[in-house]
Amino acid sequence: MKQLKVALDDNLRDRLEEASAAAGRSLAQEIRRRIEFTTHVDPATQQRIDYDKETTQLAADVMWLAFEVSRQMGVPWNRDHNAHQAVAVAIQTWLDMTRPPLERELSDQFRPDPQTLGRSIARQYELFRLNARQGVSRMLSAMREHVEAATRNARPPRAEQYSRREKKGTKS
After folding, report:
1. Cβ contact 39:56 at 8 Å
2. Distance (Å, rounded) from C-alpha 51 to C-alpha 162?
3. Structural contact between residues 77 and 84, judged by C-beta atoms closer than 8 angstroms
4. Given this model, what pLDDT does residue 116 score?
5. 30: how many CB neighbours lie within 10 A of its CB?
6. Which residues of the chain fall below pLDDT 50?
7. What backbone phi and psi angles, to 5 degrees, belong to 46?
């Protein structure tokens, strides 16, 4: 890992030190985490994902809500059932408060139900994170095995079998 010298003003450094202490990380880890967040790379494709301003702000809002719940409850939100529930309610309330006005279009009738879509995307992301943790190679290996098994079970007859059938049909 290469080191990089960066000058920070005192206020910014103080805020980063406070955030790193609250998160239980070193200052260097906190800075790396924040830089990684702004330059996110999709592990599956290794392509950089450029989030729009609104999505980046939503992520920051969710992080603040989780931090504030943890601060007020005195426990990490991800280690306590009630704190976790409070974060979920805070996020849903925030989304409700920032919802765009309802515009009814003809295409709305063809859009998926928001509840179903939201659950589906969250479950896909959970599987994606699990697969990323287990390693992309394992995931690809499992996919290859699945495709090979499906191919073995659905393999069409070989060409020589077709010729035998044709010969049998002509002799009768």
Report:
1. no
2. 55
3. yes
4. 81
5. 19
6. 106, 155-163, 165-166, 171-172
7. 60, 25
- Report the phi/psi class of residue 67: left, alpha or beta, with left for phi > 0 and alpha for psi in -120 to 50: alpha
3-state secondary structure of 41: strand
Helix axes 27-38, 10-23, angle to 10 degrees: 100
Report yes or no: 78 and 84 within 8 Å, Cβ to Cβ. yes
d(CA 20, CA 31): 8
In sign, the C-alpha dihedral spanning 95, 98, 102, 105 is: negative
Please state the domain extents for the chain.
9-42, 51-98, 115-154
Model pTM above 0.85: no
